[in-house]
Design brief:
Blueprint lengths: L5 E3 L5 E3 H4 L8 H13 L5 E5 L5 H9 L6 E5 L2 H7 L12 E4 L4 H7 L2 H6 L3 E5 L1 H5 L4 H24 L2 H10 L18 E5 L5 H10 L5 E5 L3 H6 L6 E4 L4 H7 L10 E5 L4 H4 L6 E4 L22 H11 L4 E5 L17 H4 L10 E3 L5 E3 L2 H19 L3 E4 L11 E2 L26 H35 L1 E2 L2 E2 L1 H17 L1 H10 L1 H10 L8 H39 L7 H13 L20 H12 L2 H11 L5 H10 L3 H12 L8 H11 L3 H8 L11 H15 L2 H14 L2 H12 L3 H14 L4 H13 L3 H18 L1
Parallel strand pairs: 3-4, 3-6, 4-5, 7-8, 7-12, 8-9, 9-10, 10-11, 12-15, 15-16
Antiparallel strand pairs: 1-2, 13-14, 17-18
Helix pairs in contact: 2-3, 8-16, 9-21, 14-16, 17-18, 17-21, 18-19, 19-21, 20-21, 22-23, 26-27, 27-28, 28-29, 29-30, 30-31, 31-32, 32-33, 33-34
Amino acid sequence: MSHNEMLTNQFGEQYLYAVNRDMFQRESAWERIEREFGKLLAREDSLIIFVGSDSGNIIHYILDRGLPAGTRYIFLEPSEILSQVVTTVDLSLAEDRISLVDSEQFVEASQNACIVNYLYVDGVFLKRSLSAEYGFVGQYRSEYWDASSYINELRWNSLVSLGQDAFVQRQLQNCADNENPISDIKGCLKGRTVIILGGGPSLDEHLDWIKSHREQLVVFAVSRIAGRLMQVGLEPDFVFSVDPHDISYQVSKDMLKLGPGTVFINQYHVSPRLLSQWPHRKYFMGPLLPWESELNPKCLFNGSGPTVTNSAISAAAWLGSQHILLAGVDLCFTPEGYTHAKGSRERAAGPKTDLSSLVLETNGGQQACTTPDFASAARNIAQQAKTLTEKGVRVVNISSGAARIEGVQFQSPTELELNLSLLVDRLHLPQPKQGSKRQWLRSLEQDLSEAQNKIVEVLVLLEKAQEHHNDMYEGEYINPQRKLQLEGLDKKLSEEYPELFKIVKTLSVRALLRMAQTFTDDDELQLEQIKQRLETYYTALEEGAKRLQQYIEAGLESVRIRLREQSLLNESIEAQQALAFKWIERNEPGRAFCLAPAGKGEDPFVKARQAYEEELHRDSLQALAQQSQASNLHALPARVQYLKDKKDIETLQLLYESLSATEGAIDYLPLIAATLYQMEDKSEAALAELIPVMDLPGSPIIEQALAMMVGLCSELGYHQAVMDAMAGLASINAFYLGLYADALMANGQASDAVEHLTEYLHYFPGDRQALAKLKRWYKELDNKEGVRLVETLLDLQGSDQS
């Protein structure tokens, strides 16, 4: 049958029914796309990649709205859909900024679009189209995962090679709290067995074993699982965090409730809300400041990326351990679809049903789905393990359900040999180096102030450069003297302020990107175009310098607040209250628990304590879990069918049990229950699960339930129920109109059969087999006018094809 035909809705928009079904029947594609993607599509200086184009309608929307400055688009389609869509869009209007490609052309198209430049400014966005989100075309799922894997790997490499605005911003924001480098405790884990606890689902199965061997293990934990560890009474020795973004605080803030026995190890660019409110000992990885400074660690340890687990493995070895265990570092899905342990937002969202096409082998020899991010992390751990093995360090994963990683051994907990002597030899860290914190903060303040003065000088030079540039043009000529002056200023910036100017350029990349994309061939630039480019260049540098100035000012503010904290004994109650309000303003009210107020009587920090307690106990994970769940369940029917085809009853049972405890998933349970009964040859029980679904308007499984009922009722001999179920299917999916017409004809309802087959041909007018069938039926009904009409349609199609 020919289902890949363009239809036209009442708004004059074309679409492929196989791709978009009825989603553009009652509401125009333009309005739906505006609501769902309007803000994203209007972004400037971005590379926006869509899996699917909604029958080309997203492209039409972009062309109608106009192309934002500096933005490019790539649309990824399966080949058979691409061939249809390409006939409906005029890409000549897109100024070579819209690409419509299949999976084989995608990498080349992304490189032509300068994807790395966009990654430098965090400007690459991968999105599912409406049709891809709803899963009408199964191939979209694998195309999305493959594109995601490719982009994520490029993203990490790009950030490592260039650095990122957020890293510099956080580095300066955090400098007043990054007092002790990790080099202060180098070697403290010699002879120790370290176990690194990740957030994977296997963590739960090992918690009892870890607790029973607690005295023999040095426990590292990623920050996001702190809440889970406290639930079971397991306090880690070290907790790790590296992410600079606020979402890291939202998923990790439970770590702030850990006791003084836990040490925080953080990357220099960690989320400030975690670092500034941590009340116990802490050590940082990486440089203190983004320029050369006497205050930077003499023995620098950066930690490996891209994940917190990679950093924890590197840190364990650097601190002296030669025996590193992994638990909860699974990097794959469980059979029922979980990727994270209990207590996480991913777990709260229920099992993942929109699984990727990436499959790997577990330590237990099973096949498991994974994600591009997990696969990339596994490759990084494999490289780490190879390097560490050469240095005599063993890395062992104790989870049979975890991804098998080259260089990482697998041993179950019962096979491990732990050093029992550690039972009486608890971990003792060296005391922090003695010295005046006030003096250190004063030195830091001086360093930042000097940088602040230099950046002011850089801004003055950039202003002069813009003046020289504006005066350089005399009609169609360039004034050579002004040109020399401009070149001299450029040289002065590079030679007298090399480090700061390099950072300024890093922070100017977003604006410089637009300059780089304005024209394609430098040899063809006209004088006016050269002027525009240089104007953009100096404006961008000024923007970067001002941003660096703001970041330095933020660092200075932090230092000066910490200096005020050092003088609490000399502060009045009013001054201490003002300091507490400053903490609240800076999103660090937890400082009230890091310091003791001076004097007795009224607590000057009471407002900050209240704000902190309210924030710490606010369940921000619930909304995140619900959002994740909403984008997950739509793929469940396809997951159920996949497991049914594999005859995997055990995983289906696990999936049913998991979803039974997942809020919002109850509507899907009858489909799983009926499938399980059907696989056990219990057709009546399966049918009983599905019948109540018919009374639920808007049920998300109505189509799957009706399709199952057709087979079950046919098997049980319920003829009229078969017809009723097929009528229901035909009413919600035009694909079934032809099959229902066949059933009606077989049932002796010829006129109804003709009516429904005619309706089917309204959706799929190019289906010649259906036209031939309709002609035969008209002959059987002796409807000569109908026969002539169908013959005319067949002749027209034949002439079109010739």
